[in-house]
Amino acid sequence: MVFINIKVIQDYGPVILSGIGNTLILTFGGFGMGLVFGALLAFAQCFGRGIVRRVATAIEESLRSIPLLVLMLLIFFGLPELGISLSPVQSAILAIGLRSMAYQSQILRSAISAIPYGQVEAALSLGMTKAQLFSTLIAPQAFRIALPGLVNQFTIDLKDTSIAYAIGVSELFTQSIHVAQVTLNYLTPLLFVGSIYFVMTFSTSTIANYLYRKFSIPGLGEASHG
Amino acid sequence: MDEVLRVENLWKSYGETSVLRGVSFEVKRGEVKVIMGPSGAGKSTLLRCINLLVKPDRGRILLEGREIYPKPYDAIHRIRQRIGFVFQSFNLFLHMTVLDNVRVGLVKVKKLSKEEATKIAIEALRMVGIGPELWNKYPAQLSGGQQQRVAIARAIAMNPSIMLMDEPTSALDPELVGEVLNVIRDLAARRMTMVIVTHEIDFAIDVADEILVIDDGKIVERGKPQEIISNPKHPRTRRFLERLKRRVDHGLR
Ligand SMILES: Nc1ncnc2c1ncn2[C@@H]1O[C@H](COP(=O)(O)OP(=O)(O)O)[C@@H](O)[C@H]1O
Ligand SMILES: [Mg+2]
User: pTM for this one?
Assistant: First the structure.
């Protein structure tokens, strides 16, 4: 029994790898969008009042409850019916970004609420304004506390770029399926693409662990990761 | 004489619980007031009302002759610069070094240059006996006594008109209490105006110009330390002091 067909990899490996550009564009585009808007959403939920806070919570909850595939198809096939047409890559970034935003806002929100209130009182008693309090205490500490969660979300976004297969973005997974259909061999291209995802995810967490150690401060969001 | 703080008929309740019930006192420049009283008496709430971390229900507070409650003469964040606060649990900024903890208020709030801020911060750190070997450490790397001394330095670096201290040694291991009390004694000797909540009787007798005993949201007794300690008039004060003295006799704090 031969599980891996080396010839398939030799002949079609480059075809699969050609999808890596799109995979990275979707990952960084989606995650980046998620970080910027997730931070705004978390800010609105932690410091907003009344309607602002409720709208932010509603956005977060609904986006967390819709499967990514449904969201992506809604954007790609649904929006044109409302007169908004986006390319497959744009649609995929938007879908991954919206979902990532919802999760990142949750991660940042719990990081903000993990800051001991005594430090907030100490900052206020020095005479800091709300803005000074935010930039000198809340943002730097919340970011450190949130870092492991954000990195985890990054790897989830990375893996979920494969869902863009459904709307025809030629990223890694789509390419591997094309190869499988041409060669009538599924095992080899899927194992190959799986190992590429593994390498990318693994190196992300390795780099992240290095960053945790580099930026770790004794007694603060201690990075007890392996 | 020059009056730094005046509290008039201060009331505060949380829902049904009435925590402060008509507290009045005044603090003159260079004076040290010690507040004592059982847990839950409203001591912390009183201090927090004075620097407006807690909003009183009614009454009046004046800082250096100017009203800060109910009608603050200036923005509350600017008024708070004038009032130093030392917390029971230190509350140092965990992501900053010792030096940055003391400098941050000077740079961000007072807008001093980094060089000026560093100079003042170092002076404040020396005053509380924190040497250069600790300036680049993070709070979690210090003992409780060192952390509290840094917290005191952070407050005095701002050059406040008055310092409020809420049980500054209650969270410390017994062997670390002394170093912090000595720093506060030092401040008293330099005529720093202070209101200190503490259970340390000997220290209170040492530094207090007047002791206020609070129970159930009211000042039940006030006077010179010796009078209060040796001859408490109020029965609850007597019982409270006896409990404290017994703890001291047994070597507990
Ligand atoms: N934020 C708050 N919400 C509700 N009750 C409070 C709050 N802060 C203090 N209290 C209550 O007020 C009373 C006095 O508290 P506190 O001022 O901390 O007393 P002390 O410092 O003398 O021990 C206590 O019964 C406490 O439970
Ligand atoms: Mg208290």
Answer: 0.88
